[in-house]
Write a structure and sequence with these properties.
alpha+beta
Length: 297
């Protein structure tokens, strides 16, 4: 949910007075390119804010592909903050788009956040490969890749979430006692709506699926949304084989290959084991920043 409003809590049979609503804004990797900067999706609850983009186009007689300069961003934030205050929104949580998802430098929103008194609330650490400067794998990963290559694994892309989800569900259950964020129906719906941007890959030996990957493919970055492997896949190094294929062949024309974050508990816990696995394949740190902006008088 891009904007969420929380009412007051119940207390027995008596309804407590509603708490001031809170707005949460997510800036996340775009499913497809939108102009020269990464896409920021804002979904508003009623009442809707003014159409700032239309007002800006009318004032400047330009279009959506014109550059958003710092003064424009400051004016946009000023109008947005005014609308939030008028609708009794007292706090905004803003998830900034990491720069690896920008098509051009576009950190004007970070400057506007600072000018409006925002504080850095959370930092999550992702691991990313610069595909123009790939770092060598470490020795164990090289060995896994060599062992897997000797088994002549197959790799294929599937259009069906029903093929992908069983191995993911079992991997999360057995390894982490967890469940996927999406179920089969939800992932199928997303795949149907973004067929060129959500891609599912399977890898195995013989007739068995031993590794799988769900990749969100944007204009310049391939993002690993889900990775999974079986017990036999871990022994055979099949996931390393699949990832090597995605990095060096399927998405070699992209600028970045992003493994995603290795954090829990709002960034306070760093899964060092998971982080090391990504670094062994050449991943290096990229910060995912979350800001908090208080609108109280």
């Amino acid at each position: 949910r891009d904007i969420s409003l929380w009412p007051g809590a119940d207390s027995g049979h008596r309804r407590e007075p509603p708490a001031p609503p809170v707005a949460t804004v997510y800036s996340r990797p775009p499913p497809e390119p939108w102009g020269e900067r990464a896409w920021t999706r804002l979904i508003y609850t009623k009442p809707r804010p003014p159409d700032l983009a239309r007002a800006r186009r009318a004032a400047h007689k330009t279009d959506l592909h014109s550059p958003i300069l710092p003064p424009d961003m400051l004016n946009l934030f000023e109008s947005w903050m005014e609308w939030c205050k008028n609708n009794n929104i007292t706090k905004v949580i803003y998830k900034a788009i990491p720069h690896i998802y920008h098509r051009l430098p576009a950190d004007d929103d970070l400057y506007a956040l600072w000018r409006n008194g925002a504080i850095l609330k959370t930092v999550n650490l992702s691991s990313t490969i610069d595909l123009n400067n790939i770092q060598p794998y470490n020795t164990p990963q090289k060995r896994h890749l060599k062992e897997a290559t000797a088994l002549c694994p197959w790799i294929r892309e599937t259009q069906y979430a029903a093929e992908f989800m069983p191995i993911l569900t079992e991997c999360l259950r057995s390894r982490h006692n967890a469940t996927p964020v999406h179920n089969t129906e939800e992932l199928s719906l997303l795949k149907e709506r973004f067929p060129d941007n959500i891609r599912l890959f399977l890898c195995g030996t013989s007739h068995d699926i031993e590794a799988a990957a769900c990749i969100y493919d944007t204009a310049g970055t391939a993002h690993c949304q889900y990775l999974a492997t079986t017990e036999s896949g871990r022994k055979n190094g099949t996931l390393t084989y699949l990832l090597n294929h995605l990095i060096t062949e399927t998405f070699a024309s992209r600028r970045y290959f992003d493994f995603g974050i290795s954090n829990e508990n709002n960034g306070l816990y760093l899964n060092t084991g998971l982080l090391h696995q990504k670094s062994w394949l050449g991943g290096r740190g990229i910060a995912y920043q979350i800001f908090e902006l208080s609108l109280r008088s």
